[in-house]
Amino acid sequence: MRTDHSQHGVTMLDRTVFDKRPEVVPRARDFARSFLGGLSPALDEQAAASVELTVSELVTNSVRHARGDSCSLRLVAHRDTITVAVTDADPRPPRERTPDLAGGTGGFGWPMVRSLARAVQVSAGPQGKTVRADLPRG
Fold this sequence. Notes:
This protein is α+β, with helices and mostly antiparallel strands. The protein has 3 helices and 6 strands. It has a 6-stranded antiparallel β-sheet with strand order 1-2-3-4-6-5, with helices on one face. Helix 1 runs antiparallel to helix 2 and helix 2 packs antiparallel against helix 3.
């Protein structure tokens, strides 16, 4: 895991890179929790939980479905929003699928991210894609 901490005016930015293995998902949540803990003013409990859940879902989707060996997580705190961005080497966009109500194969994450976020954007290029979700700060 490599990490870069930066501050730009009133915007706080943190970025890290993970090898794509299932055990990185809890580390990504911890990374997000640590980032959120450094914000002032702090997010309310529900907003923080939404950011952590979004980080978990987007990193999980990259680990499970994307090509390549690593993914990066970027968190940016703006005045009214928190941006969660996950980048990987696979240019294919996330795919909506019918949730598996029997609990075997998932399918809940992408719709949940889209419902929690104010805006979701997928940017694809020859080097891969970035999935960005802007969540309300409180």
